[in-house]
Amino acid sequence: MKRLVHDLIPPGVCNLLNPSTIYANNEVDLDEVDIYGFDYDYTLALYSNTLDTMIYNTARDFLVKHYKYPGGISKYDYIPNFAARGLHYDIQKGLLMKIDAFHYIQLGTVYRGLKPVPDDEVLELYGGTHHVPLQEVSGFYGKGPMMKQFMDVFSIPEMTLLAAANDYFNSNDIEYDPGHLYKDVSDAIGMVHIKGYMYKWIMQDLEKYILRGDETYAVLHRLASHGKKLFLITNSPFSFVDKGMKYMVGKDWRDFFDVVIVQADKPHFFNNCGKPFRRLDGNGDLQWDKIKSLDKGQIYKQGNLFDFLRLTGWRGSKVLYFGDHLYSDLADLMLRHGWRTGAIVPELEVETRVVNTEQYAQSLTWLQALTGLLERMQVHRDPKSKEVLQDWLKEREELRAVTKNLFNPHFGSIFRTCHNPTFFSRRLCRFSDLYMASISCLLNYDLSYTFYPRRTPLQHEAPLWMDQLCTGCMKTPFLEEMAHIR
Q1: 295 is in an annotated binding site
Q2: By the number of CB atoms within 10 A of the CB, which of 12, 51, 432, 479 ranks highest?
């Protein structure tokens, strides 16, 4: 069977995925989209990994100097490939973990500090099960009673600092409160943003931190030249956005946009009608005149979506809004207002490179076939057969580890926990019509292009799919061979 599977993989099957592909969760006809909206950070502006290191180092030093945490934490340098977006932190137990779409902890992907927790200990901690009760999983905006979910690209240095501080306390046998630690780390990371450190670093060295600005210009120019209306809604301040957009797009960047809104306070912007719009003058100073229309060339601050819809009339599926945060940017727009949504997932580029390797293709195909063999041959109950099945189970676990480690040796792919989608992946499918690595992916598609979602097998349809047909697993679940059970 292994030889058969190896021979079944056709030459050139690797490199089939283009990292610039746009993937569809729902059918979207761009011909029907007249208005394109954008977030700024990690949507119009993509940042280099250097920024994560700066955020981590500053928050770590803040933790030591201002919160008086032990100086030994300062010796922990940033680990670039440790954390992955979509992880959960158990505030009571101090564990960082990966959870699948059905709220199961993936054993072997639970960390106490920077060290993995053995499977048997995980089971003991959670009462003999790796299932997390629904009420314990983080709420809609990531603030549940026991679990904090990290959905933002900016949260990767926060998770790493949380793990490093945990590791210091555990390694030095110091008692601490994981919930209190989480709050302090969260506050320290927050201070990097509140005090404007991040804005200052980027504005001082745009070339160092901002990636592929020419592609942002190309996207905006193409959309505007085809008569599309464009708008920007961001939580970032005007001075920061203005300097970044001038670097990427040019001094006349505002000519591309029909409406520009800064310091919007998302997600509250989308679900709270309390804050009125305020206008900023050319210097970014606040004006107090009543806003009766949202005009091109003006800069607006705060506001809310209900006034935005009333003043623009931009409603429903003719609007397509792009953002990187599934909750803050996209959830309310899709669920409550009927806009089309596009999720920016920068991790797709790295994950696509992994999927395109021969090692991944062979490991995954053999893993599928081996699972089918285990399912089919478990009817044999004699001791020697059981011994063979145990060997196969061991090999299956090793294959799972191999495929996971190709993405990230600590937490694997952000999209899968073994065979199930991750909690992040399920939310991505729920709250976005389209998803892609960057907005530059739009340059590969005609503006009248229709995106069609691929049909993926439900469990009862799986035998009709090619991997099942090719690996002798068609007879699932082999009821005639298990007739003796009746």
Answers
A1: no
A2: 432
